[in-house]
Backbone:
């Protein structure tokens, strides 16, 4: 890659044209995609895996947002046997050349959906994107920069590196802090947001990990296994728009208990 890579955060935002979406206009025209400002390595491709379960209201918009981010990419949606109108919402987007949709015959959980997406990935680097609009795809180019520069093996996007909390739920922030503290205690890392969705991981490294958790235990499991591999993990701040259970948030207290179990278990063994 020739020359230095300018930071994506220094670039002025642009508004993607409706023509760039073929026959599917952007659902929310007020949303703006920022240009990457990078000179991508020849043949580079980012794989964005989107696990989906009953996200009829948001899945089309998040896909338009992801598609608008100027990164060479493939998008893999894994529909975890949704029972609402998610499949119908995906059908008008079937002609996108960079999009692949995998429909699972049985609901098995986020971790299981991710395993399916990771196995199908062909990009150089893989990242997970939730379908609920909490995470802003504009942050993806900036998260790639340390990996492309060789400054980190893995990059986590932290919701808690900003000066002001972006998550209005004190209970949620406290739970995240406790889980991150416990994860750091067992892994020796110094993370601020172990539970973040945005984890940029090179595909060969990710596909070499034997991911076992079917639900939200994926986050502590993959963190522990990366730490055991000695991966250099860097955190960068990201934007975050929290949603509540009325808007479809699915993680519950049982997942928190399981996360503690995963933190301990995967510290020493698979």
Residues:
């Amino acid at each position: 890659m020739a020359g230095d890579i300018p930071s994506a955060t220094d670039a002025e935002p642009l508004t993607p044209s409706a023509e760039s979406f073929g026959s599917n206009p952007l659902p929310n025209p007020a949303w703006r995609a920022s240009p990457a400002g990078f000179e991508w390595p020849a043949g580079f491709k980012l794989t964005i895996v989107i696990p989906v379960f009953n996200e009829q209201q948001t899945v089309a918009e998040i896909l338009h947002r992801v598609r608008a981010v100027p990164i060479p990419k493939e998008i893999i949606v894994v529909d975890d046997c949704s029972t609402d109108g998610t499949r119908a919402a995906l059908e008008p987007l079937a002609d996108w050349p960079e999009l692949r949709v995998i429909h699972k015959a049985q609901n098995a959980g986020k971790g299981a959906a991710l395993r399916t997406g990771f196995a199908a990935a062909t990009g150089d680097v893989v990242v997970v994107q939730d379908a609920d609009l909490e995470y802003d795809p504009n942050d993806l180019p900036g998260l790639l920069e340390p990996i492309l520069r060789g400054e980190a093996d893995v990059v986590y996007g932290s919701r808690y590196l900003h000066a002001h909390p972006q998550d209005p739920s004190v209970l949620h922030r406290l739970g995240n802090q406790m889980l991150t503290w416990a994860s750091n205690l067992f892994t020796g890392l110094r993370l601020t947001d172990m539970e973040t969705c945005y984890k940029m991981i090179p595909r060969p490294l990710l596909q070499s990990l034997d991911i076992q958790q079917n639900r939200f235990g994926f986050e502590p499991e993959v963190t522990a296994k990366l730490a055991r591999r000695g991966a250099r993990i860097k955190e960068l701040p990201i934007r975050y728009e929290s949603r509540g259970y009325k808007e479809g948030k699915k993680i519950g207290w049982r997942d928190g208990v399981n996360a503690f179990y995963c933190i301990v278990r995967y510290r020493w063994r698979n």
Summary: The first strand starts at residue 46 and ends at 52. The chain has eight helices and seven strands. The two ends are 37 Å apart (CA to CA). Helices lie at 59-68, 86-90, 110-120, 140-149, 170-187, 203-207, 218-228, 253-268.
